[in-house]
Automatic annotation (TrEMBL):
SUPFAM superfamilies: (Trans)glycosidases (SSF51445). One of its GO terms (molecular function) is hydrolase activity. It comes from Rhodococcus daqingensis. This is Glycoside hydrolase family 25 protein. Belongs to the glycosyl hydrolase 25 family. InterPro entries: GH, Glyco_hydro_25, Glyco_hydro_fam25_subgr. Keywords: Glycosidase, Hydrolase, Signal.
Length: 247
């Protein structure tokens, strides 16, 4: 994921295709099959010079889902969000949308801002909404935890779907004081460790739903580097999210 204010704190490591081919064969609870279910996440950075993403090429290259940035704080809407949402739907790519948190601003207002913007994706057969929480903006853990609780409750009430939490281990263990309060939410963990699975999970989570393993991936249909992810189970068959004629 990307943001104008985002600071990468983890080392970037590429995983070769041969490693990925066996990544889902290990015994992780909830893994749906030995075949990896792959997908990128994208933002405006994947549209250099206003260029588009060829979602049919993305799907043909074996990527079954994608997450697209919808909003950030109360001031930003990804100008390519609708375009990418339509493209993913047409190509049969399971669609997800995420909000990049600004914990200095009202969580309830941000939940409404995201839900209203992301409805074209998450409201029609899309994946559950995602909260990208990775910057405490200098606030203490108690304040960030309270913000997170209020946002998640609000967006679930607005969308009717339990959100997914995206974060990385060091942030959760420090800025969130490694709280276990949210361990019942699906976890999307960013961990660029060069291995075939994430390291020890923070926050009392026993399993991961998505794993972002690199920010320097290259795939057909996307110009330049892109974050790449693996699905680890828990949300069922991706076919139910990618039917372009489904509800």
């Amino acid at each position: 994921m990307t943001s104008s204010s985002r600071k990468r704190v983890r080392a970037v490591t590429r995983l070769v295709p041969a490693l990925l081919a066996g990544a889902l064969a290990f015994a992780v609870p909830g893994v749906v099959s030995a075949e990896p279910v792959n997908g990128p996440d994208v933002a405006s950075w994947q549209h250099p010079g206003g260029s588009g993403i060829d979602w049919f090429a993305v799907r043909a290259s074996g990527h079954e889902f994608a997450m697209v940035k919808a909003t950030e704080g109360l001031w930003y809407v990804n100008p390519f969000f609708v375009q990418d949402g339509i493209g993913m739907r047409a190509a049969g790519v399971a669609r997800g949308a995420y909000h990049y948190a600004d914990v200095r601003q009202s969580p309830e207002a941000q939940a409404a801002y995201f839900a209203s913007t992301a409805f074209p994706v998450i409201g029609f057969g899309g994946l559950p909404p995602v909260l990208d929480i990775e910057d405490a903006k200098g606030l203490p853990p108690a304040a960030v935890i309270d913000w997170t609780r209020r946002y998640l409750n609000s967006v679930q009430a607005l969308t009717g779907k339990q959100p997914i939490i995206y974060t990385y281990p060091n942030f959760w263990r420090t800025a969130m004081a490694n709280t276990t309060e949210f361990s019942h939410y699906p976890l999307w963990i960013a961990d660029y460790n060069g291995r075939d699975e994430p390291g020890p999970l923070p926050g009392g989570w026993q399993r991961w739903t998505f794993w972002q393993y690199t920010s320097t991936g290259r795939i057909a249909g996307v110009n330049g580097n892109v974050d790449l992810n693996i699905y680890g189970g828990g949300l069922g068959d991706f076919g139910s999210y990618s039917n372009p004629f489904g509800s």
